[in-house]
Amino acid sequence: MSESTEPAGTGGLTTGEVARRLGVAPTTVRTWDQRYGLGPDRHTGGRHRRWTPADVARLERMCALTATGIPPAEAARLARETPAPPPAPAAPPSAPPSAAAAPPSAPPSAPPRRAPAPAAAPASRAGSGLRLGDARQECKGIARAALRLDAAALDRLLLDAIREHGLVAAWTEVIVPTLQAVGRKWESSGERYVEVEHFLSWHVSGALRRAAPDTVPDRPGATVVLACVPGENHTLALEVLSAALAERGIPVRMFGGALPVESLLAAVRRTGPAAVALWAQSRATASRPLAQHVASMEWGVRGARRSPLVLTLGPGWSGRPAPGTARPHGLADAVQALEGLATR
């Protein structure tokens, strides 16, 4: 059973519940645990993790610190060392639930005032019903602009986030949580807000193109091929990877969505790339035989033949890895692996 689907009620939150509360991906929570020691203080049932309010408060401090631009390692150290704020005092048991909400100036005999609907929404909402947890303030602004279908404001906010935090951090900590929130809203609203999801995705794609530098000239043996597997049309993650690699001076050949098998193989033969990154959003499109075949391709003169490193990217490749391929954990790991390979 995965961490995000563990049964509740055994004390504490699951990793998936914590991720939703923070507005980040579950893999981000697990990475903070593994790299920086920000995991829960106790486990339940072997490998199952349960996060107490103190554990969650530590992660919330981590989010707040990274939002100010502090590097993750330093933010994690500060989050571990900073004591959690004391819990707010509870209302007296004899007081009715609404009494605590009454303003101090209201006379004791006055009936409690009902808060207007917007104020009654949880503090983790972006003023529009999108569950964003304690994500960055930028997430909330982007969500509002997307829901208003405000193209000018959305473009400005996306570009500001990329310029302030860099492509990788802006994607991981700002754009992805907002896309996930829009997706959850769509799934829970009877297919309403589909136009918001398409609108946001289109403007994210445009912002990535505008923020990326000019196309990097080819260097023999350093090019990276990016493509979605056949039948897969989700390209945003590859677009941000392409932009991040170009930002680092790595030549990229981007082939986008649903590249047919024959075309993919032809592109690899003609390019002779250092690496091939294949994106699959769902298990139905992820083809391990295809990934293994690409990894076994060779070119060059006899005695000095080369093969590409194949990276399987996206949730479709979860589970048993394809032999002879690499599976980075997130965008930052993929960029690091490809940067090291292409600069040898």
Order of helices and strands: HHHHHHHHHEHEHEHEH
As a whole number of angstroms, the C-alpha radius of gyration is: 23 Å
- What is the 3D form? globular
Q: Please list the strands of the largest sheet in the order they lie side by side.
A: 2-1-3-4
Distance between the ends: 40 Å
- The overall average pLDDT, rounded, is 75
| CATH C-level name of the largest domain | Alpha Beta
Let me know the number of strands: 4
Q: What percentage of the residues does DSSP assign to strands (E)? A: 5-15%
CATH topology of the largest domain: Rossmann fold
Number of helices: 13
**CATH-level-2 architecture of the largest domain:** 3-Layer(aba) Sandwich
Contiguous low-pLDDT stretches (5 residues minimum) are 1-9, 87-129
Spell out the key features of this protein.
single chain; 344 residues; mainly alpha; Multidrug-efflux Transporter Regulator, Chain: A, Domain 2; Methyltransferase, Methionine Synthase (B12-binding Domains), Chain A, domain 1; Rossmann fold; 3 domains; four-stranded parallel β-sheet; disordered N terminus
